[in-house]
Specification:
Layout (H helix, E strand, L loop, with lengths): L1 E6 L5 H10 L5 E8 L5 H9 L3 E3 L8 H10 L4 E4 L8 H6 L4 E5 L13 H10 L4 E8 L9 E8 L6 H29 L1
Parallel strand pairs: 1-2, 1-4, 2-3, 4-5
Antiparallel strand pairs: 5-6, 6-7
Length: 192
């Protein structure tokens, strides 16, 4: 069994889609939802989906013993970021080389980096009158949004689109493609 942990700081819509997608899989399971926000909406979703939740407050992410002990004891094989709003510590990246993946709501390398998340990205896309946006799924390294790009999908941005319109189009792509890419990565881990 390939064990997946999803890290999320917000509402958790991507986390829910991934859990639902993998529920019918024989050898891949989401076995933990991890959040740094004790008020995150993802907690309620996880409880409804019967996935255990681990809250690791921001101040504890700098303590390797706390973080690594949880992931090792939980026998996690793949770490999936789904709206997780903090930089992953280098010690975790070293412990999970090429086994931490993130989704970004834009076409990297554009509109990435510290502070570029959620509506901040969509506002910037609209302000710069881009003709398209989309999603980027990438491996995580020690810099925000700079890891190896695994997959991108695009959507059109119309001249009269508001940031909220772009957000909706991008979220459709997130929900459509992220669960499949997570499955592909997890299947590769289980194949060894």
């Amino acid at each position: 069994m390939t064990r997946v942990a999803i890290l999320a700081s917000g509402s958790g819509s991507n986390a829910e889609k991934i859990v639902e997608y993998l529920n019918s899989h024989d050898s891949i399971r989401v076995t933990a939802i991890v959040t740094n926000n004790q008020n995150a909406g993802v907690i309620e979703r996880a409880e409804r989906l019967r996935i255990p939740v681990e809250i690791i407050p921001n101040k504890e992410w700098s303590h390797p013993e706390r973080v690594l002990t949880f992931f090792r004891n939980s026998k996690i094989d793949l770490i999936v970021l789904a709206g997780f709003l903090r930089l992953i510590p280098e010690f975790l990246i070293r412990d999970y080389p090429r086994h931490i993946v993130n989704i970004h709501p834009a076409l990297l390398p554009d509109y990435g980096g510290k502070g570029m998340y959620g509506m901040n990205v969509h506002r910037a896309v609209c302000k710069n009158k881009e003709k398209e946006s989309g999603i980027t799924i990438h491996l995580v390294n020690k810099e925000y949004d700079r890891g190896e790009i695994l997959f991108q999908a695009r959507c059109r941005v119309l001249p009269d689109d508001l940031p909220e319109d772009v957000q909706k189009k991008v979220q459709v792509l997130e929900h459509q493609f992220y669960p499949m890419i997570v499955e592909y990565l997890a299947a590769g881990i289980s194949a060894g």
